[in-house]
């Protein structure tokens, strides 16, 4: 008998409501849950094929231990006791900091994963925590902390009331309207506003699917948004187009901002970003004078050396033109739990990294620092590490360096569905549980939705017998290591007692776990629209529950700054802006005339999902896109094999010649070239495309966000073999699996 389970997809923050049809314990169909009142409208092929991950032919089905060059399946008792003993030995020898963890993007879509991972890290007492933020949204965390007083206080977009959109460094037509905020169907809702007369401006060096539909496409030079946005701020302040009330009352630091803008030369800024000053002026004026407007920034802004300054100026433009907390602008959604306060409570103790001496951002150090922290001897050298839901060799900068460092560890443990590139040196592979197989309450991201919303994500099917949720793995490790989970004395005994009780009474719900915490979070949740949420009511809304209309007027009160104002000109941002201004205008270094941009693919999620049969890769990730006028002098035609190289690496791929990128910019999609190994069967790894991040230098970072120039590295492009002379064209599915390894050795 088939049954339908209503839950939501947890691959990205869009959190699309889905109907999962289950027959004989297997998922047979996933479709959008059209009764979901909030979130089904981005539903995409990734959600539709989620069961292919569950039934992945190479899925890890039991803990696997490395023995020589092979892996053997074991039970959990052996896995936990071996890992715990080895971790304790590493700590004995090198102290708690000798143990590290990296967590990737999917960890954020399971509240129990992150919570218990931090609980275990606190048990260990290590400061060596690394996170995906340093290759994603750190710039926003840094800006939110300084301007609004909390790294998590990020604004959401009121799309349906907006008359003038400025979308900077985002491609919502492909990536959905989500980053540290989510607007379900946000792009379609934006286009609906456009139909009603709203103007859409897209700032992107590439003529993307989003830019294609814009009223104005501004093809900025990669990495130079800060100059464009600073010019806009200057024009708005100089011409008196700012919001007088908010600049006098809500914001502080406007004078310091004027101090900066007084020193800029608009023509110089226009040259830096390579956008005509007349265009910048028009957009600045129209944005400032529109009735209702918003400026939105994303990864296209943050993944550069000037990323934090650009992110800051993007927020400043909203604040000084009165767009905060007003219809059609950006507002603060309080959510049903106070995530800001909980983050304060759970925050890691501040720490400076051993080698570079840099502070953590949002509780974690930067990925670019990890390789040296592993290979450089001394107290605090990382000797053991857990990679939780991540593939940093492919998603981060300079993967070759990280790959080598990982190979030198005494212990590497990977928790994932399959063994990917970053896990190839793992001593232990631990099988994770997919969202179709687990219950979850994403309470901590409830302030990132564009309206007050709650849904309990129920499981559709049971996980494989030996797969385990991360919270359970981290709890078991803390217990076996005899170190107090969450650093809370006595908690391990409570957990052990609850387990005994659950076993004796045969009532699994008595066992300490996330379920307790979900109930507690609802029991202590704040009132939304004046109404208290009860657990029973949450369960009574299987399609999800919109908790009333969007609330305005809460922003001021929610601010975490000491004086309850928005700090529009934090001194460190002003200083960094002056530093960027003092540098020579951007010009390519000798031998590397192009800038390497990036694209996401509708059917892949960063470095994964691209290998699923239902999402068969269509040659993406194996191509570099070059502007026709750049290709011609190099003798490059579509289909030719070209070599793209930087100071740190080189890859070979097929050329596509297309006018999408602006001149001087070439595009390679990120997230490809990650092998999927077969630890159980030992057959050849699967691999599609090449890893373009091998070309990104991790040594140079934005000092504020600690993010590398992932999407503006300088590269060279040269022809290797022209298509006509190629003896044989290899289809993408037969890409030589060793090509990646060769790339690593380059
Ligand atoms: N050049 C360039 N590089 C980029 C970007 C870019 O725009 N340009 N984008 C960056 C961005 S925005 C991001 S978020 C990062 C992503 O960087 P990462 O998060 O490090 O990498 P992912 O590719 O998302 O890999 C996620 C891994 O988690 C596994 N996984 C999925 N779900 C679960 C789960 O529930 N439990 C466990 N244990 N494992 C799970 C997957 O199988 C996969 O191996 O990449 C960044 N890299
Ligand atoms: N299908 C799909 N959806 C996804 C993901 C995925 O991998 N696949 N990833 C999810 C994740 S983890 C995230 S963080 C979000 C990210 O969501 P977005 O930030 O919207 O991600 P992108 O689609 O990479 O769009 C970034 C855009 O910035 C442009 N860009 C690059 N450099 C610059 C620059 O210097 N200046 C400007 N102005 N633009 C620049 C790029 O050309 C690109 O079009 O998407 C999420 N959604
Ligand atoms: S991956 Fe697709 S279906 Fe899943 S939440 Fe994101 S947009 Fe929705
Ligand atoms: Mo991301």
TrEMBL record:
SUPFAM superfamilies per the UniProt record, alphabetical: ADC-like (SSF50692), Formate dehydrogenase/DMSO reductase, domains 1-3 (SSF53706)
Keyword Cytoplasm in annotation: no
Disordered: annotated segments: 721-746
Segments forming domain 4Fe-4S Mo/W bis-MGD-type: 2-58
Record Gene3D superfamilies: 2.40.40.20, 3.40.50.740, ADC-like domains, Dimethylsulfoxide Reductase, domain 2
GO MF, one example: oxidoreductase activity
Domain of life assignment: Bacteria
SMART domains: Molybdop_Fe4S4 (SM00926)
Feature: compositional bias, Basic and acidic residues: 725-746
Keywords, sorted A to Z: Iron, Iron-sulfur, Metal-binding
Family that this chain belongs to: Belongs to the prokaryotic molybdopterin-containing oxidoreductase family.
Name of the molecule in the record: Oxidoreductase
Species for this entry: Mycolicibacterium poriferae
């Amino acid at each position: 008998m088939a049954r339908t389970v209503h839950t939501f997809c947890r691959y990205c923050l869009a959190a699309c409501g889905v109907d999962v049809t289950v027959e004989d314990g297997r998922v047979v169909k996933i479709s959008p849950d059209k009764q979901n009142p909030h979130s089904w409208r981005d539903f995409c092929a990734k959600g539709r094929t989620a069961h292919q991950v569950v039934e992945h032919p190479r899925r890890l089905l039991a803990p696997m231990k490395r023995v020589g060059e092979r892996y053997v399946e074991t039970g959990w008792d052996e896995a936990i006791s071996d890992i715990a003993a080895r971790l304790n030995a590493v700590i004995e020898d090198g102290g708690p900091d000798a143990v590290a963890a990296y967590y990737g993007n999917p960890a954020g879509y399971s509240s129990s994963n992150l919570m218990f991972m931090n609980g275990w890290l606190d048990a260990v007492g290590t400061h060596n925590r690394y996170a995906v933020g340093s290759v994603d949204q750190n710039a926003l965390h840094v800006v939110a902390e300084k301007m609004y007083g909390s790294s998590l206080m990020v604004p959401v977009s009121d799309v349906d009331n907006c008359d003038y959109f400025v979308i900077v460094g985002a491609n919502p037509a492909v990536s959905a309207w989500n980053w540290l905020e989510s607007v379900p169907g946000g792009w379609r809702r934006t286009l609906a506003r456009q139909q009603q007369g709203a103007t859409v401006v897209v700032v992107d060096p590439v003529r993307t699917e989003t830019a294609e539909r814009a009223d104005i496409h501004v093809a900025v030079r990669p990495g130079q948004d800060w100059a464009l946005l600073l010019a806009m701020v200057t024009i708005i302040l100089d011409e008196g187009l700012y919001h007088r009330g908010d600049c006098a009352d809500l914001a502080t630091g406007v004078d310091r901002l004027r101090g900066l803008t007084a020193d800029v030369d608009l023509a110089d800024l226009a040259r830096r970003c390579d956008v005509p000053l007349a265009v910048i002026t028009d957009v600045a004026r129209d944005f400032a004078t529109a009735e209702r407007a918003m400026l939105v920034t994303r990864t296209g802004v943050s993944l550069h050396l000037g990323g934090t300054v650009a992110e800051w100026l993007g927020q400043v433009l909203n604040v000084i033109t009165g767009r905060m907390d007003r219809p059609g602008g950006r507002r603060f959604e309080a959510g049903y739990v106070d995530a800001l306060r909980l983050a304060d409570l759970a925050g890691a103790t501040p720490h400076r990294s051993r080698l570079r001496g840099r502070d953590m951002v949002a509780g974690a150090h930067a990925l670019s620092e990890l390789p040296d922290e592993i290979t450089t001897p001394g107290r605090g050298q990382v000797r053991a590490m857990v990679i939780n839901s991540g593939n940093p060799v492919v998603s981060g900068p300079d993967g070759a360096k990280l790959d080598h460092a990982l190979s030198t560890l005494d212990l590497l443990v990977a928790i994932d569905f399959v063994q990917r590139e970053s896990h190839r040196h793992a001593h232990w592979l631990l099988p994770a549980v997919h969202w179709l197989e687990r219950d979850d309450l994403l309470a901590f991201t409830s302030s990132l939705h564009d309206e007050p919303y709650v849904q309990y994500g129920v499981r559709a099917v049971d996980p494989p017998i030996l797969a385990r949720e991360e919270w359970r793995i981290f709890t078991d490790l803390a217990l076996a290591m005899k170190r107090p989970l969450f650093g809370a004395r006595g908690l391990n005994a409570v957990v052990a007692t609850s387990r005994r009780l659950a076993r004796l009474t045969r009532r699994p719900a008595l066992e300490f776990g996330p379920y307790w915490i979900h109930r507690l979070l609802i029991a202590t949740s704040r009132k939304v629209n004046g109404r208290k949420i009860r657990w029973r009511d949450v369960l009574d809304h299987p399609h999800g529950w919109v908790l009333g209309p969007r609330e305005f007027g809460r922003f001021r009160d929610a601010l975490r700054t000491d004086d309850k104002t928005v700090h529009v000109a934090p001194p460190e941002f002003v200083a960094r802006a002056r530093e960027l201004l003092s540098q020579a205008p951007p010009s390519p270094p000798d031998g590397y005339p192009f800038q390497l941009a990036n694209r996401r693919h509708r059917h892949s999620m960063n470095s994964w999902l691209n290998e699923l049969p239902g999402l068969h890769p269509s040659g993406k990730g194996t191509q570099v896109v070059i502007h026709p006028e750049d290709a011609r002098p190099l003798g490059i035609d579509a289909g030719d094999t070209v070599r793209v190289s930087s100071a740190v690496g080189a890859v070979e791929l097929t050329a596509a010649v297309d006018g999408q990128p602006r001149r001087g910019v070439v595009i390679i999609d990120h997230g490809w070239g990650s092998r999927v190994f077969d630890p159980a069967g030992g057959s050849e790894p699967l691999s599609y495309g090449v890893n373009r991040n091998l070309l990104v230098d991790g040594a140079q970072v934005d000092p504020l966000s600690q993010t590398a120039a992932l999407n503006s590295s300088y590269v060279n492009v040269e022809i290797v073999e022209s298509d006509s002379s190629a003896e044989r064209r290899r289809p993408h599915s037969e890409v030589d699996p060793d090509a990646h390894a060769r790339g690593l050795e380059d």
